Amino acid sequence: MAATTPRITAVDTYDIRFPTSRELDGSDAMNPDPDYSAAYLVLRTDADDGLEGHGFAFTIGRGNDVQVAAIDALRPHVIGRPVDALCADPGTLNRDLIGDSQLRWLGPEKGVMHMAIGAVVNAVWDLAAKRARKPLWQFLAEADPAWLVAQVDFRYIADALTPEQAFALLREGRVGAGRRAAHLRARGYPGYTTSPGWLGYGDEKLTRLARQAVADGFTQIKLKVGADLDDDLRRMRAARAAVGPDIRIAVDANQRWNVDEAITWTRALTPYDPYWIEEPTSPDDVLGHAAIRSAVAPVRVATGEHVQNRIVFKQLLQAGAIDVLQIDAARVGGVNENLAILLLAAHFGVPVCPHAGGVGLCELVQHLSMFDYVALTGTTENRVIEYVDHLHEHFLDPVTVRDGHYAAPATPGFSAAMRPESIAKYRYPDGSYWANATAAPDPHTKGAAA
């Protein structure tokens, strides 16, 4: 009797929410009370190896159920797919999910639906890397350049980057890749920390955490700004006094300003030598970012965590609107689209410094930066991965940071799998934490922990 072909048998979804608003972790000028959350999924198969694919979209509380529903809507495209074929070519599923015309109408290629596609696609890459017995960064770095090019959707970006140019970048990037992989394993990838800089923290906590960051080996920290200029000036003064003149301090406005406000505010902060101004205005405003960059130089302009797809990134690069490109592992359409964005950034010579923090974003995005270093750009100069020290304990393969550097993951996969006990405790609304939080405010009211 012929052996059956292993297939995807289930896409299980979970609404996972952590009550981070209670300590103001993650607070900024635009998002004062986030509850870091994950619309989480597990791909299950009937293969004998028992391996699963894990993925998620990051949200900040209310609406996480909407994100889960969007992932659920993709289930018919996934159930029944042959596992071998899916892992051999994740791009086929990526194209099918983006190409569903009725669901595409809800974007196209942006917003809740696109984030859901990214979560499912990332889960496939997690499964593929596990089956190859490699961490994702290594799986990508050792992949054939022509195969990687085939994973990229060049529609809408071929005027800026052709498949032939992408192949040339990847072929050149393979030169010396083995040496760089060995260096990565020995030293890790440089990071920076946002932990001191949440807007809800007082000056004493800011100062203490900033000094601790330097002691921990970080050469860059980040502060949230944008609510009150006098407060920002005071906090920047305190941070600079805490870390000295040689540590970089980036600042992040989280889209708070109009273009003229961004210019005025950033210039006011320049006595304290901000390294970059992040998300100074709407992530959709390409020309606004270009105007800000021109006006605030030599302060760099950075954005990307809310940039919705490769097309907007293309325009930011074409317009010379940013100095630093910030990919997000869970905002766009998964690994496939992030490959496109990394290739665009390499083509334009703009450094990539990913957005992280959140729920599991550090765990995911480290793989993309490490691939970029080993097998694409070959450098970490002016490149750092954001690090925030919370919620890592909920993952089976949490990030490890030593002397301000991300250690290269060695466990096969995308580092996306959550601990079953964390899922059981923080699943909303029936996990043990939420079921027992009877004294908490109404979770559907603004400012509540949900």
What would CATH call the class of the largest domain? Alpha Beta
Shape: globular
How would you state the average pLDDT, rounded? 94
Q: How many domains make up the coordinates?
A: 2
Distance between the termini: 52 Å
Annotation, overall tally of beta strands: 12
Task: Write the CATH architecture name of the largest domain.
Answer: Alpha-Beta Barrel
What structural category characterises the helix and strand content? alpha/beta
Give the oligomeric state: single chain
| Computed Rg | 21 Å
Query: Helical content, roughly?
Result: 40-55%
Please identify which CATH superfamily of the largest domain we are dealing with. Answer: Enolase-like C-terminal domain
Low-confidence segments: 439-450
Indicate the proportion of strand residues.
5-15%
Largest sheet: 9 strands, mixed
Q: So how many helices? A: 19
Account of the 3D structure:
With 450 residues, the protein is α/β, with parallel strands linked by helices. It has two domains: 8-134 and 420-434, 2-Layer Sandwich (Enolase-like, domain 1), CATH 3.30.390.10; 173-406, Enolase-like C-terminal domain (TIM Barrel, Alpha-Beta Barrel). 42% of the residues lie in helices and 14% in strands. It has helices spanning 64-73, 75-78, 83-88, 90-99, 101-104, 111-131, 136-141, 145-150, 163-173, 177-187, 203-215, 229-243, 259-269, 286-296, 310-318, 334-348, 361-375, 420-426, 432-436, and strands spanning 8-17, 37-45, 53-59, 189-197, 220-224, 248-252, 274-278, 300-303, 324-325, 385-387, 401-402, 405-406. Strands 4, 5, 6, 7, 8, 9, 10, 11 and 12 form a nine-stranded mixed β-sheet that branches. It has a three-stranded antiparallel β-sheet with strand order 1-2-3. A hairpin with a 2-residue loop joins β11 and β12. The protein is globular and about 70 Å long. The model is unreliable at 439-450 (pLDDT under 50). Its cofactor is Mg(2+). One of its GO terms (molecular function) is magnesium ion binding. Keywords: Lyase, Magnesium, Metal-binding.
